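input
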Amino acid sequence: MKEDSALDRAIPVPDAAGGETDEAVAVVAPHHHLGRRNDRLLLVGIVAYAILLSFLMIARGISLTPDVVVVGFGLAALILGRGKLFLRDWIPFLALFFAYELMRGYADKFGLPIHVTDVVAIERAISAPLGQLPTTLLQSLHHGPATNPDALATISVIFYFLHFPLPLAVGFLLWIRQRRVYYDFVAALIVLSMAAFVTFLLLPVAPPWWADQHGYVTGVLHLRDTGFSGLASFFGFGNYFFSYQNVYGISSNDVAAFPSLHAAYPFLAFLFARKAFGKAGFLMLLYSACIWFSIVYLGEHWVVDIIGGVVYASAAYFVVMHGPRWARRFMDRFADEEIEAGVEAEDEGDAGALRRLGRRVRWAVVAQGLAVALIGAAAAYGMNAFGWVGGSQSALYLLPWLAILGGLWRGAAGLISR
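output
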């Protein structure tokens, strides 16, 4: 049987004078060289790895937070021979994500009024044909008080857990197969997160469970803790279970319902998965629908929050994919596609490619980044443990964290330099 034709890439070879010879070395991306069958097997293997990792973490009571999931993907990158490239491409992304998480908790301290009655009015208008709020309609499937065991709440909490880790898995697939699209995906995530932060700052919106607790609506149950309890009971773990609230308690915000990032992140992942993987990407749309059902059933979000999340994700996708040329050039320069072509040409991974392209670790830059990160860590510890300059409740507490994240980013940039 004839093998599928390979996709050749030509990498110019510099001559002694520093120019380029007319001769080019044709390199073949190993995934195409192995044929489409092996390429599919690689993707299936990565997806299976992500699912197995998620199951084991849930079974052991470990919250599927981005930092923990990325460590798991880092191990996979090492196996694929792309360890240095993984650190260079993913540390800045994690730094930006955690910077957003830290800022998110300060949005409700801005002093603006919390929106409840107007959101409830919009929700009632949307659900007028149903005769009741969507949350209470779905929660009619639950019998008795919120503390009653509920299998549907347990399943919903699993989806609630995975609202960000599975989009990260899509990002990892993009990074393996279409690294340039991965950078677009990260840029869109950042645009989406920062737009949501500004909205949280200027338009704090209470979730359904908050509205019920404060008397604005009746009959809404907060089933998230019920789902957590069911999950703990099913897998048999106890006090060492790290809940979503434990992990994000550093900078929580109870009135950041609109737009729903639980709805937005998976939908953004769907838009990129559809672009990169065709029909297979629609599986992310099905997953998104499961998330949307779960967050309404648990009492965490209104339907209008989901609509807002979808609109924000679509806008972020459009801004990045159809943005100004200068932004595209910036992303192209940062992605450095020459590295990608070189890595794909080398069977042993990034080591040989970086050596052949003349890239190296700039230890001075790495050391600078680590030094800044350590200074930030010391300042954060002092503010938290000894109450320096107002302690961890002060807005200045952001500064040492930004130093930590900026230092890590600087160190990552030094891992692969010209």
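quick obs: Residues 224 and 298 are 5 Å apart (CA to CA).
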